[in-house]
Amino acid sequence: MAPWSGFWGARAVLAGGGGDAFRGGGTPVVVKMDNPNWSISEIDAGDEDEDGFFAGGRRRPRRGKNAKQITWVLLLKAHRAAGCLAWLASAAVALGCAARRRVAAGRTDADAADEESPAAASAPSPSPPRRSRLYAFIRGLLLLSLFLLAAELAAHANGRHGLAAPAAAALGALHAAWVRFRAAYVAPPLQLLADACVALFLVQSADRLVQSLGCFYIHLKRLKPSPVSPALPDAEDPGAGYYPMVLVQIPMCNEKEVYQQSIAAVCNLDWPRSNILVQVLDDSDDPITQALIREEVERWQQHGARIVYRHRVLREGYKAGNLKSAMSCSYVKDYEYVAIFDADFQPYPDFLKRTVPHFKDNEELGLVQARWSFVNKDENLLTRLQNINLCFHFEVEQQVNGMFINFFGFNGTAGVWRIKALEDSGGWMERTTVEDMDIAVRAHLKGWKFVFLNDVECQCELPESYEAYRKQQHRWHSGPMQLFRLCLPDIIRCKMAFWKKANLIFLFFLLRKLILPFYSFTLFCIILPLTMFVPEAELPDWVVCYIPALMSFLNILPSPKSFPFIIPYLLFENTMSVTKFNAMVSGLFQLGSAYEWVVTKKSGRSSEFDLAVLSPNMDHRKQQQRPSSTLPMEKKEKYNRIYKKELALSLLLLTAAARSLLSKQGMHFYFLLFQGVSFLMVGLDLIGEDVK
């Protein structure tokens, strides 16, 4: 709303009728008309002491607020309330318009496969019936819930108002038969499944609590990995310090938005140039992107950087195949360590100086992993929620596992490997879509130790659209199940301590990769709404509200600035359970969608460091952004889509919320209502990037 003007703006700032306030009409106040905030402060008399006496000892009479002061306060409160209502109305209109655009466009998640990157083309295409099984199951539950809601409403209306005698008798008999049937045959197995999921939920919550306590202990004792040998001296005299030969790899595929900033960041690493070599591993199938990346590499070569460009003719095995091909070069034998950065990662100049020293005189160390930070974490609600998740992952999960058991899953980037450890573990394998976790598990079975550095950061991007985030999460949750099926015999046969085998099988794989998505989807998206229609089976309030709230509180502790988003985070995590559950099942049972590999879309947002590095060459950078080739630059259109599974689940949850009103289950109603709205927003693609 625009600031007040005219009569209201020209009004005297002293409320209470001007001079009347000083003549005993009330306490004078100053009204600050800064829209939309306002404040009122009293004007104290200069010669009055704390007890209400003037300098001469005469008591000043007590003065109350007069009608004019109260009127001003009420007007200002009404003005502020009107501003809030106007903001809410504009937000609702914007959401409504965005939803109308989604529905009018008619693009669904089923249309996304035809528009994806060619990087997924080599994966076997799943058959349409297999892909729609989960959606068909959810749709069947939705139709059943609508039918049961209609029956309950009819029975409720018959009980309150009464129908004609024959109709009332028939309806009453049918309803009584249904009640007896569900009490005898539906409620017991549903309650049994609910109790099993609650038990899994409690076990997983206990695991998360123990990890959080471990993180608290690390901060309390100020534990931190430290190199065995002293810190490195200045790089001006390489012969005086420990500057081993380091190979740096940047795998990329059709990522023309980010290649410049990642290459620039890596070429500016503070390390003797004679002891470092950068490999740009380009798997792009777009000739324009290939030409741009090759020209960027040549430009840095002219500036003295030791950097080479590699492009595979046979693009097999996705990222693992790319890295495997690069490690087969003859000159790799001259290098002792390899640092890996994805195309959107931008290491700081001192990255190698803070990671490589941990390898010196520590022959058992195979991996040093740094944490991620994000240049676009405040871009939209989706990136804020991702930031909460990943901050907990690095601050708690990775740090605790690295500190106490020297093992964690390699994050695929922002890490330094000992090349001997890679070779001893069998090298990169293309058998799953999580090649980083695969090599980490095999190295752990060989006895190599890992170190996680929570204070060494590497900047990168978060997916800004729900479509990109959904594809990324599908790969991250289907791959571990593929790997578990392949690695389980090796884990059982491995000669390592029993507790390490138990940690790897039951905690690392089963609890955190299988049980978590299973109970999240089954308990909160299936069982809970069904208990509204089968009240003989029930879930207590502490399962629905209190423990999830506590777990969300623990998750958000590593990112305290995100506390205002604790409720959206709780709802969004349950919303993502449908994608994670689908991915977990596809990976566990080797369904076709488990082999999908789609490169996460990048927006190319630069950090302050990138701008500082590239600022002397900004003119050349602008020229590089224009393709020098005469081939037409293909521009892929981006769309917002409707996600059918999430939309069907939103209707199921909202139907269950309506049914809960008949039973007066307050806590369950609010949870189902808000969770249904959350699924609705995600189903209409209203949470991430809005493509106009």
Automatic annotation (TrEMBL):
The keyword Iron does not apply. One of its GO terms (biological process) is cell wall organization. Residues 109-129 are annotated as: Disordered. It comes from the Eukaryota. InterPro entries: Glyco_trans_2-like, Nucleotide-diphossugar_trans. Keywords: Cell wall biogenesis/degradation, Glycosyltransferase, Golgi apparatus, Membrane, Transferase, Transmembrane, Transmembrane helix. It is found in: Golgi apparatus membrane. GO terms for cellular component: Golgi membrane. Probable beta-1,4-glucan synthase rather involved in the synthesis of the xyloglucan backbone than cellulose. Seems to work simultaneously with xyloglucan 6-xylosyltransferase. Xyloglucan is a noncellulosic polysaccharides of plant cell wall and consists of a glucan backbone substituted by xylose, galactose and fucose. This is Glycosyltransferase 2-like domain-containing protein. It comes from Urochloa decumbens.
